[in-house]
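Hi Q.,

Before the meeting this afternoon, I wanted you to have the S-adenosyl-L-homocysteine prediction in hand. No need to reply - just skim if you have a minute. The sequence and ligand are here:
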Amino acid sequence: MTPLQHHDQEREALVREIAEEVHDTQYLTGCKTLSPRVLRALREVPREAFVPEELRPCSYLNIPLPIGHAQTISQPYVVALMTELLALEPDDVVLEIGTGSGYQAAILSRLVKQVESVEFIDALARQAKERLAGLNFPNVTVHTGDGHAGWPEHAPYDAIIVTAAASQVPQALVDQLKPGGRLVIPVGADHWRQGLRLVSKNLAGQLHEREVLPVVFVPLRDTGAVPDGSP
Ligand code: SAH
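Predicted structure with the ligand bound:
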């Protein structure tokens, strides 16, 4: 068996595990199943290519893993659930805040026309940019910046996903969401306990929010912090 085939089997087992967990948590999340498109994206993106080499054997465990600079690649179940909650369409343009390894951006890129992703730590942004180009995910653009401001240049977005915990929903992100769009974001002042929130904007521009699941994310750094990679 080649190493690649080995990973294919592990990936398939993980996708099944995630699908079961989504089914088992539906009463909490309101999300009964993963759509075939999301399942396909999970099957197509090689998570092992987004984790540090020494952690590759752990790539297909359903857990977050360290990626350096005191940051993590999210738990695969959480990536799948957040992606599903966005209800993406092939022509959508999506904004991600917190590029990290680039894994979530790669999953999104399989489902939409364009992904704009903003990362605060320049070293991670560069690494993700290089990795995504090398793996041929051409419809992801990585920017270095503070995600509290969103990325006005390409706004408004059909969907916005934030993969670090904010103390409250940043107004700029709400403003950059299209009517009919969805925003998924972990919110909580306590860094070890947050609620994943789904914010929907209807066609009249009115907002509806619901709490989906308790989660643990690294914090969304506040404006004014120095973007140098220090913990
Ligand atoms: N989506 C990532 C997981 C990222 S972890 C993946 O798939 O690997 C959260 C990321 O958010 C970290 O890389 C962190 O540096 C970044 N981050 C933290 N605060 C930020 C901010 N204010 N603006 C943009 N990115 C931020």
